[in-house]
Amino acid sequence: MDIQDIQTLIRDIPDFPKPGIVFRDITTLLKHPEGFRSTIDLLAQRCGELSPDYILGMESRGFIFGTAVAYQLNCGFIPVRKPKKLPAPVYQQSYDLEYGQDQLEMHQDALKEGDRLVVVDDLIATGGTAQATAKLVEQAGAILAGFVFVIELEALEGRKNLPDVPISSLIQY
Ligand SMILES: O=P(O)(O)OC[C@H]1O[C@H](OP(=O)(O)OP(=O)(O)O)[C@H](O)[C@@H]1O
Ligand SMILES: Nc1ncnc2[nH]cnc12
Asked: Using an 8 Å Cβ cutoff, are 149 and 122 in contact?
C-alpha cells in the first residue's frame, strides 16, 4: 500500500478527547494487515537511512510502531514511559500536550554516551512529547539521529519545538 492508501485507514473522531480536537485514530489502520505492514515498512525505511543502533518509542502508541520498526531494522528498542512505571533509576521530563500535561521517564542506564537512536511515534501535534523525549536523550548524552512519525498535525507546528535533526512524517494533516 502507498501512503495515500494508508491515510484512508486513519479514522477521524471529532471532539475527542475534548471539544475542538479532531482525534486521528490509528486503531483502524492497525487492524488492517496490509496497511499496518506497509506503514512499518515505510517507517523502517526512513529510520534505516539514519543508521540507528536503537529505536526509542513513547508510551503508548509509540510502542506499537517503534517496536515493529526496531524488529525490522534489527535494532534494540528503548521505552520512554509515563511516570512511575519504570523500576530502575530514571531521567524525568514534564511536557504539555495538545490536550493536557504529563511527564515522561527513561531509565538512566538505557542509553550511554555516543549511542545513536531514532525516535518513533504515531503522531506529532504540539511536539511536546517529542521535545521531552529529546531532552531525555540529551540527559543521557546519546546521539539523536532524527524523528520519524506516522502523522504530523502541521498547523500545530510541533517540529519548531524539536532540535535541528532530520524530522520525517508519512502523513500530514
Ligand atoms: O506532539 P504532542 O502534542 O506532544 O502530542 C503527540 C502525542 O500525543 C499522543 O500520545 P498521548 O500522550 O495521548 O498518549 P498515548 O500514546 O498513551 O495515547 C501521541 O501518541 C503522541 O505521543
Ligand atoms: N489530534 C490528535 N489525534 C490523535 N492523537 C493525538 N495526540 C495529540 N493530538 C492528537
From this structure: yes
Mutate to test the pocket of ligand 1, among 67, 93, 97 (most ligand atoms within 8 A of CB): 97
Q: What is the pTM of this model?
A: 0.97
- Residue pair 117/55 in contact by the 8 Å Cβ criterion: yes
Which value does ipTM take for this structure? 0.98
Cα 11 from chain centroid (whole Å): 19
Is the separation of the CB atoms in 8 and 41 below 8 Å? no
Residue 99 has pLDDT above 80, yes or no: no
User: How far from the centroid of its chain's Cα atoms is residue 92's Cα?
Assistant: 17
Kindly state if the Cβ of 96 falls inside 6 Å of ligand 2.
Answer: no
Inter-residue contact 27 to 10 (CB < 8 Å): no
